[in-house]
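Course assignment 3, question 2. Fill in each field.
Student: A.L.
Task: Predict the tertiary structure for the chain below.
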Amino acid sequence: MSLSEVVRLSIMLKNMLTFSRPEEEARKEININGFLDGILMLMEKQLRESDIKLVTTFDDGAPSIMVSPGQMRQVFLNIIKNGMEAMPHGGMLSVATKTENNLLSVIIRDTGTGMGDDVREKIFDAFFTTKEQVRGVGLGLSVCYGIVQNHGGAIDVESAPGKGSTFTVCLPIA
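Answer field:
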């Protein structure tokens, strides 16, 4: 129990530090499909244990993007983990890439509980959380929003109660 609390506090502290001063690392040109494949491979066991089916639809012609890999990994892991938590009894998580108008979009859709407009309007606000206090402090999506904006991109969410959520991260093509 002590160890799990230390890990939880460590994650909270790291999120607070990232929020106040995101770690800047060298930006690299990456292939988004391979990058997402690697992240999903890490999550595969957790998805399976949570009875969540994963569906990927990648744009084979997706061009490279210039990003800080560690920061982008944090963005996608956070969105995927939130989607998993929104499906406590299993469901489907789909991850897709699409190229349009000089932008690369990563679309992450879950079949979870969804959220109403009142929650959806606040999810990118710092310290806003719908989770119990022992599980989060409301910095995850706020940090993600800042990272994506810092990369010249945008992040959007569509959701409705009982209908799941769709997060779209748009990034400029390298």
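Instructor remarks: The first strand starts at residue 28 and ends at 30. The chain has one domain: 2-172.
Grade: pending
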